[in-house]
Amino acid sequence: MATMLTRAAVACVAALATVLVLAGCSSLPRNPVPPELAREATIPGMPDIRAQAGRPDPAMVQDYLRSMQQESAGDFPLGADGLVSHPHLALSGGGVNGAFGAGFLKGWTASGTRPVFKIVTGVSTGALMAPFAFLGPQYDEALQRFYTTTTTADVFTERSRMMALMRGDALARTAPLAALLEQYVDAPLLEEVARAHRQGRRLYVGTVDLDTRSFTVWNMGRIAEYGGPQSLALFRKVMLASSSVPIAFPPVLFEVEAGGRRYDEMHVDGFVWANVFLHAGIFEPAVLHRQAHAQPGREDIYVIHNGQLSAPPASTPRSLRAIAVRSIDISGRAGIVGDLFREYAYARRHDARFHWTTIGEGVALPDLTAFRPSQMAVLYDAGYRAALSGQAWRTSPPGLPAE
């Protein structure tokens, strides 16, 4: 949902300075984790379900090592080259442009070349897609329904911008999206995710913790494995948090435990830190594979970018709002380029194959602040046709020659 920010949130920029003076230090009540306890905070009853990006996490390392013991040759067979292929799928943010990714997955299925994924990751709209992509082609229809029939009213309701700035934490309410997640993410789906986790596959979603200013990687399969109403509620909550664009949507508060007491953490859209990620430094699959002396293998990395890298030139009005809108748009496009180079560097370091795709420049993108089924259907069809063509994958990041 990240790029929904470009109009809904930025429309208030011109009035922000004045409102801040009027609002003073007003804020909504919360019970944040004391800074000195931040690193030990855990979800009550689920101590091993998440990690902070940028450093190896012992629980995540052990969980991935366990996944190598759990996986089957049926999912990851030995290839003719004597190597076991481990396909990884990373789904980017992009708001309503997620319709492209949903269509691409369906076209990939229809092409007969879509693999079983060892790892699936997602942020923002990618986080909404990730569980369905993880579970496989049988959920293609659910993704199609979500990205071609959902309307703006199904996602959020607007609030008074002035009142939101003075007495609130967002311009809109996401109760409709939470209700939509309850409809699509139910107990049977959670059990299927848990089953896939027990079979050696991994599903990760990213959010940003505003207090620690860090990227949090959630082990969604492990959450599902705990089972029960608490697990289901947390699973949905993580998906909602990863889709909660700051300013536009309210942050999501998670109850945590630290130092024997209960506090809350404030999380927002994972796009704030990364538009796409593979493992965010919490472990390196290739390194663990070698350490475990497992069957010789190779990673196949696939990135679906729900957006475009460039846009046609257009004059920028000399106004605070227009400059802010254009600057955020440019920043988002630059961010995905950096993410692609990061994942490409990982692939080169570990002799992995690297593939990524994006929306063609000839496709007109809709207004990202509005969910209009007719426009999303066009994007869905563009993704479907791109995948079915078999020519959508690029093997080098922008600016480098194809390999």
Describe this structure in words.
- By secondary structure, the protein is of the alpha/beta class.
- 42% of the residues lie in helices and 15% in strands.
- The strands form 2 sheets. Strands 1, 2, 3, 6, 7, 8, 9, 10 and 11 form a 9-stranded mixed β-sheet that branches.
- The longest helix has 30 residues, at 320-349.
- It is globular and about 60 Å long.
- Residues 2-25 have low confidence and may be disordered.
Briefly summarize what is shown:
Helices cover 42% and strands 15% of the residues. The chain is of the alpha/beta class.
Q: What are the SSEs and their pairings?
A:
Layout: H1 5-8, H2 13-23, E1 50-52, H3 58-70, E2 84-91, H4 98-111, E3 119-122, H5 125-135, H6 140-149, E4 157-158, H7 161-167, E5 172-173, H8 175-184, H9 187-198, E6 202-209, E7 214-219, H10 220-226, H11 228-242, E8 252-258, E9 261-269, H12 285-291, E10 297-304, H13 320-349, E11 353-357, H14 373-389
Parallel strand pairs: 2-3, 2-10, 3-6, 10-11
Antiparallel strand pairs: 1-7, 4-5, 6-7, 6-9, 8-9
Give short descriptive properties of this protein.
403 residues; alpha/beta; two-stranded antiparallel sheet; 11 strands
End-to-end distance: 32 Å
Helix-strand string: HHEHEHEHHEHEHHEEHHEEHEHEH
Structural category is: alpha/beta
Most strands sheet: 9 strands, mixed
Report the uncertain regions. Answer: 2-25
Q: What is the 3D form?
A: globular
Number of strands: 11
